[in-house]
Amino acid sequence: MPFAAVRVQKINGLRGMQSIENHGRRLDPASASRVDPSKTADNLAWSCADDDLAVVDAFKRRKADTGAKEYRGSPLGLHVLCVVSPEWIAAAGDPHDPGNDRNKRLFQAARDWGDKTFGPGAVVAARMDMDEAGGGVVDLVIVPVAEVKQRGKVKNQISVNKAYEAAFGGGRVFSKMQDSWAGFAQAHLDSEIQRGRSKALTGREHVHADIYRPMIQEAEKQAEAIKRQAVEQWSDVSDWPWRDRAKVVKLAREVGVKEGAAAMKKKAVVAIRKQKEKAEKEKIEALESKDKEWSVKVSAVQSEVESVRVNLGAISEERDALAVEVDALRSKVEGLEAEVSLLRKVVSAVYERAPEPVKRFINALRGQPAPAPSAPGEAGQGRGGAPDRAQAQGEGVGHVDPVKNRPRPF
Q: Which residue of 201, 227, 271, 325 is 20 to 30 Å from 239, comparing CA positions?
């Protein structure tokens, strides 16, 4: 029964786009060990740029056509692998033949699914390799564009997260993506195609092709060597006339293949387990290193916080002391205000009873103008309006002291 599955990875920066393009052009180191150069020309490729293998230019064309911008540091798109079991393709012919109808249908279906899921024009490049050992895999480069509101204006923006939300909503996005591709493959390729089983159900760990492929190749070499050795040992049956030579050779080949496959399967399992253990160890070491690094940073921050806390305590004490002093000063001010008020009352009482020269003196101290001169006949003047003797001499108002012959103010 054929299965369908999806693998997806975010593309970070133009360097990520260039890396995908370099692999498509077979310019990266990994291509040297993976591909058969004699079949590279058979690869199926398409992009929205002028060159079918141009990924970076296709991305730039997508930006120019939509006027979209990207957030600084945010992913520029998605690298999606749409997979169907290679056995499904092999049922209609050579899985590495670009003319195989199922290869052509799968290549087109993957592109159609990408545009349907992430919006028209979202797929900017696609590639299906005929020069690699496997088959049934279509590489898609998807640049999703969404409308966003910024400062009251609607703008186009490249956003992977908004694309996930629009296509699949919340929850388990990658599981929903698997369902989506499997359903599309069933509807447009073959109703027999089933969704690939999840890791949670199978319990299997995904092993990267760069790790697994060399093991399989080594296993095939050793199996072939065991088969040849078995054939050589069992092919010379001239001394056994009762045996069917062809049957013996066939049996020897079957035994050799089975023994070689079983032996190499064990080796492959051990090698994979070691690779997994090594990866887990490196992961743990990296986490421990990062934990130590952050522990140092946290300790430094805690020290700074403690120092600030101590300083705040000292400031609080100073603030409390100042508050006490302010309260004492406020009490003194209130006392002084009461004294000033009393003095004002005393001065007012004295002023009311004081003679004119004293009032003028007090007014001069206060900075107030002198009162208007008294009218004729008022106190301090003689008959007929003439001033008395004391006033004529510029002395104060009052009576004359008989002892000193001077006017007294009171």
A: 227
Give the Cα separation of 371 and 125 in Å (integer).
105
Do 158 and 66 meet the contact criterion of CB atoms below 8 Å apart?
A: no
Do residues 192 and 1 touch, judged by C-beta distance below 8 A?
A: yes
Whole-number Å distance between alpha carbons of 278 and 161: 33
Contact criterion met (CB below 8 Å) for 62 and 53: no
Of how many residues is the chain composed? Answer: 410
**pLDDT by residue (tens digit) across 78-88?**
999 999 999 99
3 state SS for the chain: CCEEEEEEEEECHHHHHHHHHHHHCCCCHHHHHHECHHHHHHCEEEECCCCCCCCHHHHHHHHHHHCCEECCCCCCEEEEEEEECHHHHHCCCCCCCCCCHHHHHHHHHHHHHHHHHHCCCCEEEEEECCCECCCCEEEEEECCEEEEEECCEEEEEECHHHHHHHHHCCCCHHHHHHHHHHHHHHHHCCCCCEECCCHHHHCCCCCCHHHHHHHHHHHHHHHHHHHHHHHHHHHCCCCCCCCCHHHHHHHHHHHHHHHHHHHHHHHHHHHHHHHHHHHHHHHHHHHHHHHHHHHHHHHHHHHHHHHHHHHHHHHHHHHHHHHHHHHHHHHHHHHHHHHHHHHHHHHHHHHHHCCHHHHHHHHHHHCCCCCCCCCCCCCCECHHHCECHHHHCCCCCCCEECCCCEECCC
Tokens found for residue 317: 């004490």
Which stretches of the chain score pLDDT less than 70?
197-224, 226-253, 255-265, 268, 368-410
